[in-house]
Amino acid sequence: MKNSLSYLFCFFFLIQYSIAQDRITGEPFATRSVVLGQNGMVATSHPLATQIGLDILKNGGNAIDAAIAANAALGLMEPTGCGIGGDLFAIVWDGKTKKLYGLNASGRSPQKLTLEYFEKQGMDKIPSHGPLPVSVPGAVDGWFELHQKFGSKPMTEILAPAIDYAEKGFPLTELIAWYMQRTIPFFESKGFPNIEDTYKTQNGGKLPNEGEIYKNPYLANTYRKIAEGGRDAYYKGDIAKTIGKFIKDQGGFLSAKDLAAHKSEWVEPVSINYRGYDVWELPPNGQGIAALQMLQILNGFDFSNIEFGSAEHLHLFTEAKKLAFEDRAKYYADMDFFDVPVETLLSEEYAESRREQIGKRAGTYAAGEISAGETIYMTVADDEGTMISLIQSNYRGMGSGMAPPKLGFMLQDRGELFSLKRGQANTYEPGKRPFHTIIPAFVTKDGKPYLSFGVMGGDFQPMGHTQIVMNLVDFGMNIQEAGDAPRWDHTGGASPMGATTENTGIIRTESGIPYSTTRGLMDKGHRIGIARGVYGGYQAILWDEENKVYHGASESRKDGQAAGY
């Protein structure tokens, strides 16, 4: 019996600390070396999309051309995470003007849907699926805004690779096949129309498995219309009319007029300085400034003697997250409807007042008093020094379950992220952009580009951004190690959808976090849990100014690839 217990102890010890391989150099948890290239780099969550982007660069296109082409491919190849039924955000470092630009290409709520409608229906939250959470899809307009400002190749050439793959087919990758085999039956069980025709009929009446060929000729036709007719083909033509009629027939409110009125917004990115590095995010309606608030709070702690993955590391991180997310719940919203105090939230003085509340044990907090999902992330860099950090999503994986007939894509359900409680920053209003989880990020140093990166994954994203920056700056990892390092998140607390804080929440850790850390966190009063697949999807490109070399990294938890030349 004693020998059996010893064996079990050794077995679990080895599992706890096991790694996939014995690397000669670098951190043992790294899955591969950093990818290097002098002329250009593409990092996406799908190898074929990465190759499309790389081909565009090699054939004379720039980073923006390649990003649009790769994003279009991902809408086909990874429909469980993105598509032209969703929204888009981007941060661009323009190699010519040596300046950062921010694009908010998120859509607004239907003009004819009111808060009173939900109240009369007795709803205390917007449903997660069906026609009611559908807001205007902003991605296609985002493509054309990026293209008009920075693009070089014609859209017919940019969208051609995705059209070709949609018509001829491509093999489904492991992760996407797994998601689709679970998601499509769910929507079918709900009785939503056009699901079988959109995702099965065009593939011989069945949903392909990993390695089997998947086609979407409806999406090919839609892409072709957009390539030839421009953004108006989507927002003012037959596509808009089809979407509007379909949603009305399903009992929803999104109309062709809502699509025709849509426009993206160029915004100024905002930043804080973290130990000499300027970390940039977009202002609300997204949650990017939550990462900046966390970093600003953590700026006041010395991590030089704190070990990565230790109880003290996770404790300070989690308490900073709780503080930032309380502010997120109270203040983050569409800035056309609410005066978000961004400057104050990011100030060192405010961070100090929040930092002082952190003690040795797990705490609960309130927002500061101020007078006032699934996603894809990708990044591209070119030989002119332009770098784009782009994130795009339908929310909740594939979206609302609303697939307009014969268009080849599903509409997003971002409207679920409004609050239905009156008087809050993020309370539902017609024509308002909902609180958004998807956020691109960028880092500069001494006024020069340093890192384009992002980590997808709902509420995890600000936590993921903060972990990546700390891994690079505080713990000296390279960009592949920074993404492969074991992660954790914290769930619980207030939300922009109206939830309030009831307890200290739960820290959920990946298996690479040692039990000694778990035990130490318990001693500090934290509750510990586990979760599957909530830790995001990371891509990154770093610019080595001294050697004039791009460093690329791709998420080991996904099917992706970084490639350069």
Automatic annotation (TrEMBL):
Q: In which pathway does it act?
A: Sulfur metabolism; glutathione metabolism
Keyword 4Fe-4S recorded: no
Q: Which domain of life is it from?
A: Bacteria
Q: What is its EC number?
A: 2.3.2.2, 3.4.19.13
For this UniProt entry, the molecular function terms from Gene Ontology, in alphabetical order, are: leukotriene C4 gamma-glutamyl transferase activity
Its recorded reaction(s) are: an N-terminal (5-L-glutamyl)-[peptide] + an alpha-amino acid = 5-L-glutamyl amino acid + an N-terminal L-alpha-aminoacyl-[peptide]; glutathione + H2O = L-cysteinylglycine + L-glutamate; an S-substituted glutathione + H2O = an S-substituted L-cysteinylglycine + L-glutamate
Q: Which residues form the signal peptide?
A: 1-20
PTM summary from the entry reads: Cleaved by autocatalysis into a large and a small subunit.
UniProt keywords, alphabetically = Acyltransferase, Glutathione biosynthesis, Hydrolase, Signal, Transferase, Zymogen
**Assembly notes:** This enzyme consists of two polypeptide chains, which are synthesized in precursor form from a single polypeptide.
Family listed: Belongs to the gamma-glutamyltransferase family.
What protein name applies here?
Glutathione hydrolase proenzyme
Name of the gene this protein is made from: ggt
